[in-house]
Amino acid sequence: MNIGWRLLAMTSVALYPAIGYAQDMAQVEEAGDAPTQDIVVSAARSILPPNALPLTIDIIDKQALDQQIAISGSVVDAVATLTPSFSPTRQKLSGAGETLRGRSPLYAINGIPQTTPLRDGSRDGYTIDGFFIDRVELIYGSNALQGVGGTGGIVNQVTVGAPRREGLSGRALVQGTADTDFHGEGLGGKVGGLLQYKSGRFDISAGAVYEKRGVFYDGEGRRVGLNLTQGETQDSRTTSLFARAGYAVTDTMRLDLIASRFELKGDGDYVAVAGNRLTGLPTSARRGNPPGRSAASRTESVALSLTDPDLAQGNLVTQIFWNRTRDTFGAEINPIATFQDPLIAPVGTLIDQSQNRSRKIGGKISYERAIPGFEALTAIVGFDALWDRTEQRLILTNRVWVPPSDFRSLAPFGQLNLALFDKAVRLAGGVRWENVRIRIDDYTTLATSNRVAVKGGTPTFQDALFNGGVIVEPIRGIRAYASYAEGFTVPDIGRITRAVNRPGVSIDAFLDIAPIVSNNREIGVEVKRGPFDASTAYFWSSSDKGQLLIANPGGIFDVQRLRTEIQGLEINLGMRLPLPGTRLSVGYAHLSGRYDSKTPPDGIVDTDLDGANISPDRLNLAASYDRGPWSARLQSQFFLSRTFKGRLRDPRNDFGGYTVVDGTIAYNMGKGTIYLAAQNLLDRFYIDYSSDTRLPTDNFSYFAGRGRTVTLGWDVRF
């Protein structure tokens, strides 16, 4: 695992742009048995290999991704498991508080942003089934490569590529999941299929996945508690559809149309049972009928791209896209205080629930080539445009909670990469000019925010976001780099606008709407020689008006805009053993973050970021084997205890730490691969990180992690 282009799988393959071709997996060679080829990371907006970029990049390839999804069930869990500086997941539909390097990552599919920053419903990790994902590209740290949202980094999911062979091909998957006590309510299953056809210059792919998840059980055989409001992946059904049609206009130019639809809906068979934080009893669940509609998430997306890696000796990438989401949050049996309105029903009796509605339309174009007559200098020029409209409604009473908010971003950008001394030294840098406009019409807040009239407005933001770095590679396989990059996002405007409770507020003069500009400064060293690959990176970042999630007395998180500073250390070591196909790996991440907690703020950080805003220190250990028809992996994650310090420290939020061990084994029978995977192999009972570090008085948000869970599956490609 190398700090510039760490491979989290056991193979190294040539990867083409996300909207172009993908390598036929039958041609993959085992690492160490053949020379590796350069990797192209589409999220980096360049066809230069990652070792030419002053970035920390990870690639989770198809083999590693499928292996992790078999263990844990989702792409988000796979990324969180393999990435030490990523927060442990909540094992819920909502990813609120899950961070990369202490800040929110930008989730994307083929470069299309899934994140909705104007009113972040935290469902952006669940917008497509991993069955249709070929690889995941991670770019660490604040950057503006994909525009708004990448303050913690980028998690780009690249869908399966076009077929490379003539005729019909495809894949089928059947699997079942159960806790080790085989409770009937805990049984789940998944079936999926993908058909691909190629004839001459034309190809088409289409597939569908259906998954039923049962109830989760913790390490003591107790039902894991439900968060009815934010949503669950347990006790749910998922349908995911995918289609791709492509045409090779010339030998190099390609036109692709990609469409997908993903929907996850809770079955609504259970209600939460309060736990007891004082005695260590976690929140549980019992049979029951929760009010309202079950929490659900639906995403629909269409993208059309035209690419040509050899247009006038350069690389052209264009894309237009449309994306729509509907995120429904569930209703609680006990009425939520924020939704009460005496004009509708007596206070304390009104049950309501909310729904985020978002629509994105955008386009991207970039062109990259070496400068004629000065081939050592590569230039990229491009332009991105994005229009996003988001609102949040209370759907049982048809009230507006978050007013419709329009976001528009127009951003030209340019990058330069200069190779010196036969590529032993590289200088890279660029700038992106962001022109952002946010428009919100006049609106009135809810009764619990004093029913105040708020004057709308059109705040704007224009800024140049810079990046630059130097790479030194005196010997192939030994590399050091230093870099600086700026990223930006807008605060969760929905949380801010809905919380206005005093008259006379105008959006144009409301300073909390100002964008968040963060930076990432980093130095790293990488060694990839023989059977060893090792890396270390140290980073530090800051933002003058960062975004912190602060719980209000009603349990709903609001936003505060304060200065934040984060620093961290990442260390990774991988080694191939003399036994062919065997590999050991170690990963470690230490993160420290503080913010300015004083009122009024003075710009000096004095209090640790809590568990809602930063991940714990972590040690990952893994051993894997892949030779012939057999493959296996045993992995452990040690989440280390932490005492939060500072002026506003609450000792009830200190983290006790826990350890999880997973394993998987697979055998290729020739006609498909059969596999057995186990999550939490030792069946340890633990309270998850999010529950242990926030809402210290809420006994309905004290969730245990999932106990031992086994998955048996059959995966065939033809």
Automatic annotation (TrEMBL):
Family: Belongs to the TonB-dependent receptor family.
Keywords: Cell outer membrane, Membrane, Receptor, Signal, TonB box, Transmembrane, Transmembrane beta strand, Transport
Keyword flag Membrane: yes
Residues spanning the signal sequence: 1-22
PANTHER family linked: FERRIC AEROBACTIN RECEPTOR, TONB-DEPENDENT OUTER MEMBRANE RECEPTOR
Subcellular location: Cell outer membrane
One GO CC annotation: cell outer membrane
Gene Ontology biological process: siderophore transmembrane transport
Region (Disordered): 280-300
Keyword set includes Membrane: yes
Domain TonB-dependent receptor-like beta-barrel: 269-681
Entry GO MF terms: siderophore uptake transmembrane transporter activity
InterPro entries membership: Beta-barrel_TonB, Beta-barrel_TonB_sf, Plug_dom, Plug_dom_sf, TonB-dep_rcpt-like
Superkingdom of origin organism: Bacteria
Mode of membrane association: Multi-pass membrane protein
Domain TonB-dependent receptor plug residues, every copy: 52-154
Name of the protein described by the UniProt record: Iron complex outermembrane receptor protein
